[in-house]
Amino acid sequence: MNQKEVAYDIAGRLIHDYRDYCLSKGIDYACFQSVRPHDDTTLFCSAGMQQYKPLFSNPSHKGTLSNSQACLRMGDLDEIGDGTHFLHFTMLGLFSFREMTLSDAIEFWLEFLARTGVRPDHVTIHPDRIDEWTPLYRGRIPIVVDPECMWSDGSISGYCTEFYKDGIEIGNIVNPLGTCIDAGFGAERLDMLSNGTSPENALETLCSTVLKIIESGYRPGNKEQGYVLRKLLRRVHSLGGSLDHPFFQEEVERQNRLVRKYERLRHSYPDKSIEWWFDTHGIDPETISSYGT
User: 85, 79 in Cβ contact below 8 A?
Assistant: First the structure.
């Protein structure tokens, strides 16, 4: 077994341990390995709470559940390779609708983190909640005031408290509507800190993300998820990487055709914009920028 397979095996065990921990608390658990979104607000699932949004806003619903959810955040594309950002990752989630208190959630996560061997260096709290929430930690963790400790998805919002280790945010607990709990911790970051596994480099992250999108049932195309997949395949190729998958070979051939087409036509249309080349001939901006025009 190579180093990467060992790392994935360890991460898998951490997710398995989280499942057992939740079940030991009498909390239902579900595992979602696809990055397909649960609603039409995002191209890919970006958070474990996405499918539960109706439950947060339903005042008559009461209950608690947990999950591990495969997530993908394209907003992190330019950050990958820095040792802390994962384009796709597994979020360990805990969600309570008018049942668990914030104090309960803090105790839940401090206990689980202790099991993983990851003790937070500090937590952050919004100044509006510093007096009310500080006592919930009972002096066990240093607290830093942070005015950015708020969260919103556009329709549901709340103050949050964030957990940090070695300068890295490992998770947070949001208090949506002041009555609910939405907590999410990154399995890969916890794995990295608790087991000393090395994060993937940028090219490895791109390749694994491409495979995750394909495994979730998507194929390259000109729109939405298909276009994102094509963009990532193109990025792998431009960085000198390779994938043993037909979609990658097809994209390399497509790029070669577009390069030849651009070479043939670019002198005839010297003043056309990048948008025109893409809309008219399907030639991607990266192809044009490689010519310095």
Answer: yes
